[in-house]
Amino acid sequence: MADLGNDGKGNAHHGAGDHLRPDGSFDGERFLHGLDAIFDSDESNDEAEGYMLRALADAQDAGDDGGQLTVLNELIGYYRSRGRHEDNLPMIERSLKLAAEMGLEDSEAWTTTLINAATGMRAAGRYERAEALYLQALASAERTLRPGDRRLAALHNNLSMLYSETGRARQAVKELGKALDLLTASSPDPGTDLDVASTHTNLALALLGLPAEGGDADTREARTDQAMGHASKALEIYEAGHLQANPHFASALAGYGQVCFTSGRFGRAAGAYRKALGIITRDYGQASDSYQITRDNLEQALEAAHRAGQKEEEPGGGQGGTAGNRHEGESGKSGLPPAAQAHRHRLSGLRLARAYWEQCGRPMIEARYPEYAGRIAAGLVGHGSECYGFDDELSQDHDFGPGFCLWLTHEDYEAIGDRLQADYEAMPQVFMGYGPRERSVRARGESRRVGVFEIGDFFESITGYRQAPGEDKPHEWLLLDEATLAAATNGEVFADPLGAFLQTRQGFKAIPDDVRFALISRRLGMISQAGQYNLPRSLKRADGAAAWLAVDEFARAVASLVFLVNNPLTVGYLPYYKWSFAALRSISTRLATRLGPVAGELESILRLSSAACFGGAGFGEGGKGAAPAAEKLIKSVEMVCAQILEELQAEGLTTSQEGFLEWQRPYIEAHIVSQDPVLHSI
User: Fold this and answer.
1) 388 neighbors 583 (Cβ within 8 angstroms)
2) Cα separation of 157 and 178, whole Å?
3) Cβ–Cβ under 8 Å, residues 417 and 408
4) φ, ψ (nearest 5 deg) of residue 405
5) What is the DSSP string of 573-613?
6) pLDDT digits (tens, 9 = 90+) for 584-597
7) Which of 195-209, 217-231, 303-317, 387-401 has the lowest mean pLDDT?
8) Tens digits of per-residue pLDDT, 314-345?
9) Dihedral of alpha carbons 292, 298, 302, 305, sign
């Protein structure tokens, strides 16, 4: 069945202590950035595991309980997804003990920890313990989550799996019905909603497990027909939402395959299982429980199809591509199309840069500049999608190829800067099949993105400042837009023996609280004016262009607010518009991210705006007109605003119940200590 729990991720390119800042504190953002890199990695599971265990030790050494809990929850998901249940049990108990010691009861973090622990116990077959934890999580969720929170649906979904696995099919169906109702009611567009699709798959499988008793309505044939409807609906949603690259697509395919097998469509079942097996190989590896089960199901389906004289065929619906790159399966046996198989071997820009540094850059410095080897920082930070980890094949047509940055102090740059740049340029221009590096006009000369830099010059070229403004200069902070700060603080630092580069970079990440509160206030103003006030008025005037622009301003302000509420010191800054949603999706998957569900809801709002602003006959919206979409759009905007208000209250930033967010601004600005008028609204 599709599982809505957490999946572990990791990156092996770190050693002990590598997640500690110069002051000895645990760098949670660096750890999570490394976890995200596993999606590009071909590293073995053992190396990924080692990465997380070293991070856990670093968090423990730093005395950071929250950091330990973050790592533990990732480890729990990692072990569970790979069937290593005995290794998982002590991690689960440790996470529960730690969360209790931190006093997290009656908090969202406690609810999340209970869900992850219960899911791990269920996967390990410890059903009695898992059920107790799920029920505890439900009770906690009623106190800590709002009634329409989608995590409630995920909890009902996971509890249904336990009931199904313990032979309580009717209870499983009941829980799934609750989950589907919650998800459908809370989703702006259920027809393209991943969680709705997963729940349809789970319902299909649960229906197959119901006993065929009673009258005609309860016959096995009727149950199978119902199951087929849900399984097919799941594939339709994946196709309509272009979600086939998501790992959970394998669950939908496998569920569809099981329904087909039960109904005697063995050839189609085999096709679905084979496609699912390719995705599982890619995302979870061949040592996982999912791989073993799906492989056995494929063999049974092929044998049954042969006996029945049926040919293997593609599953109906949801037949889009499965491009992605997390794990590599056997060549030619993955079930992926050739283009997707080739895609697996692509290196991300950050991984290519790190490898180029380790194999070419570091040896060159140690050989030619031994007296400076313990002084030079190296990494990849700045402009370009690869610095954010968002690059793909399309990104390789410009400013891509072997390259990294070397950062020197002013004194060292004066002494060896020009000579080191010449030696950098003399390194191999083709590396690991990439290169020479293509440079656009905007990435040459003083604007070059890789090579040798003096630390102050590097940050000045991006921000206009050699170091971050002081806390007593809020007007200078407000001149720095978030996209600029994102470019100055993204990427990875491979080495920094002196800590000078990291210290300067950290200064730009540590936005003063007074400035952050002022920006939160400004974003609330735009959210309320554009989304709550001008959008519905523009729609009533049938001014689709004005409404469209209002949605754009609303989405930009909400996206910025998510980063500001979570604090850029922890999650970084919102990058420029091209990568805003990629960044939102990235942080929304992290444990305890505030306003995490908003990323998906914003995307649904943007989809709805097409029909709401310009819908109607002749526009391709089915001729139903814009009114239904407009009504749904306004409702979705208000739902996001309600979540924002709830989060502001939970963070102690306001005590007001006022739903029009403009009126929350005085409560936010009351937290600003400085009396500087630039920080306060009129």
Assistant:
1) yes
2) 8
3) yes
4) -105, 145
5) ----GGGHHHHHHHHHTSTT-TTTTHHHHHHHHHHHHHHHH
6) 988 887 766 889 88
7) 387-401
8) 886 433 333 333 223 333 332 333 333 333 34
9) positive
